[in-house]
What we know:
Largest sheet: none
Low-confidence stretches: none
Number of strands: 0
Helix content: 55-70%
Order of helices and strands: HHHHHHH
Mean pLDDT: 91
Strand content: under 5%
Structural class: mainly alpha
Number of domains: 1
Number of helices: 7
Amino acid sequence: MVIAHLPSGYLLSRFLFDRLGLSSGSTGILMFLGLLGAIFPDFDLIYFYWVDHGLVHHHRYFIHWPSFWLLLSIISVLWLKLSPLWISASTVKYAPLFFSLGGLSHVFLDAYVGDLWLFAPFYDKSFSLFHVPARYKPWWLNFIWHWTFIAELLLCVWAGIVYKKRGLL
């Protein structure tokens, strides 16, 4: 996915707000963390371009491993269930959940058309639901001109509709 990570992070955060029945007082920070989590795995591009110089596919870094985000999500749920009584503020209580689920959604969206090392670090093989052949330069044109880009556009439209109806928070 090239453009749908932020819209999907927004949709996931809206879903979590509704599902968890959170008050409007904490939604700004939680929305920010959900959106940040949805794009955070791509922060590895800084290392990819400036340090590694593109030698290793950035989806091979641990920040793109589903196991990493799944572990963070499990820890977040445990934090939510076992947090001390004095932590009653929903922002502190739910922040790790919003961030980690945003990251988890990112890596699974990447598996739609991009290589994802689904079982890393335990198994060194990449998977993707659909393959986008490299025909154009720059690289991102390959994704935009592929039929699977329609799903990204639909996610963006869906997020736009929800935003128009409900607003950011």
